Automatic annotation (TrEMBL):
Transmembrane spans: 12-29
SUPFAM superfamilies: UDP-Glycosyltransferase/glycogen phosphorylase (SSF53756)
Domain Fucosyltransferase N-terminal, residue spans: 85-191
UniProt pathway annotation: Glycolipid biosynthesis; Protein modification; protein glycosylation
One GO term (biological process): lipid metabolic process
Domain Fucosyltransferase C-terminal as annotated: residue spans: 206-379
Assigned EC number: 2.4.1.-
Assigned protein family: Belongs to the glycosyltransferase 10 family.
Species this chain originates from: Triplophysa rosa
Subunit note: Homodimer.
Protein name as catalogued: Fucosyltransferase
Membrane topology recorded in Swiss-Prot or TrEMBL: Single-pass type II membrane protein
Gene Ontology cellular component list: Golgi cisterna membrane
Catalytic activity reported: alpha-N-glycoloylneuraminosyl-(2->3)-beta-D-galactosyl-(1->4)-N-acetyl-beta-D-glucosaminyl-(1->3)-beta-D-galactosyl-(1->4)-N-acetyl-beta-D-glucosaminyl-(1->3)-beta-D-galactosyl-(1->4)-beta-D-glucosyl-(1<->1')-ceramide + GDP-beta-L-fucose = alpha-N-glycoloylneuraminosyl-(2->3)-beta-D-galactosyl-(1->4)-N-acetyl-beta-D-glucosaminyl-(1->3)-beta-D-galactosyl-(1->4)-[alpha-L-fucosyl-(1->3)]-N-acetyl-beta-D-glucosaminyl-(1->3)-beta-D-galactosyl-(1->4)-beta-D-glucosyl-(1<->1')-ceramide + GDP + H(+); an N-acetyl-alpha-neuraminyl-(2->3)-beta-D-galactosyl-(1->4)-N-acetyl-beta-D-glucosaminyl derivative + GDP-beta-L-fucose = an alpha-Neu5Ac-(2->3)-beta-D-Gal-(1->4)-[alpha-L-Fuc-(1->3)]-beta-D-GlcNAc derivative + GDP + H(+); alpha-D-galactosyl-(1->3)-beta-D-galactosyl-(1->4)-N-acetyl-beta-D-glucosaminyl-(1->3)-beta-D-galactosyl-(1->4)-beta-D-glucosyl-(1<->1')-ceramide + GDP-beta-L-fucose = a neolactoside IV(3)-alpha-Gal,III(3)-alpha-Fuc-nLc4Cer + GDP + H(+); a neolactoside nLc4Cer + GDP-beta-L-fucose = a neolactoside III(3)-alpha-Fuc-nLc4Cer + GDP + H(+)
Amino acid sequence: MMETRRSCPHILIAAMFLSCVFAIFYVYHSPTMNCLHCPAVQVSKHKDCPDACINHTQLINDTCAVNVTVVKETEPKPSSPSQTDTLLLIWIWPFGRNVTSQSCSWLFQIEGCQLTDDRNLFNTAHGILFHHRDIHEDLSNMPTLPRPYFQKWVWMNMESPSNSALKPRLNDLFNLTTSYRRDSDITVPYGQTSERSADDRTFEIPKKEKFICWIVTNWNPDYERSKYYEKLKEHVSVETFGDSFDRHVSDGDYPKLVSSCKFYLSFENSIHEDYITEKLYNPMKLGTVPVVLGPPRKNYEKFIPAEAFIHVDDFKTAEELAAHLKVLHENPDMYVKYFGWRERYAVRGTWFGLEHACRSCDHIRRNRNYRTVNDLNTWYWG
């Protein structure tokens, strides 16, 4: 009993000492983040988690862990890539769409890449992405500092040559190109078809209420698509929408409208090799048969199954095409054959700007060799 009483003061002193140590630790090492509201992933890995949560939490069975705190000294800053990461600087985000908070890893399974739009990192960036439309013709908004020897400059453009201004001073300026074209260094098409995974649900053709549809926001009577439409409507009814026809279609209404049409006129505004845009991929994804006008059929078949679309070149005249569409309209068994490819393939679109940045960064990470584009203007505009 006496021994117990004598040890009490020592225990109290030790407890007070530990309390002080804990208090000091808490003050100088306080938690800096708590992802209380990071939801479980449902669509794709990490997709529903804010980047802040992705950068600062652990993942448990593809779900963002809650109540995870991070000690300040070990917390990585998103804007400060590790020494092993490849850093890509986006000089001007295409059309002002800033998506630097997105992650290359969970969208495209690209690891070891960091994106930034902080121009203060110019001298350390391994590459810089430039969007063609945002470059001034006199290059007045381009970098003025000397380019580091290791740095790659990437030219990006998703518009066709007909809709892109030729800028003579761009020759001998870039190391790499990224565009929809297959002969680009980094090819990023407007969409892709890929094999369906085993757990994909069975595709069902949406209920059809309309025959042939077309949405146009940029009407030009000199375009080939406008001329063909004028001929086609003489032989079959085409329901038109869009600002050009004073029938505005909001982003929210677009999916329901297109999926309700049996056929959609996927007519490109200009005809160039590989220039196959969302006008094709969106109807395909929404369960509508696209009727295409653009490069030759063989070019389309480089990207999508041959039985997934109807090409205007398959018919000698617009009248013959109209007759074929009427036959399909009246014979459901013939119509559904245009969806047979859905048993094997799925369609996805492109993350405009972000995907070009991620894939450019990945290309630079994997290819450190010297490369230059000597005559960009001849290559693209011919």
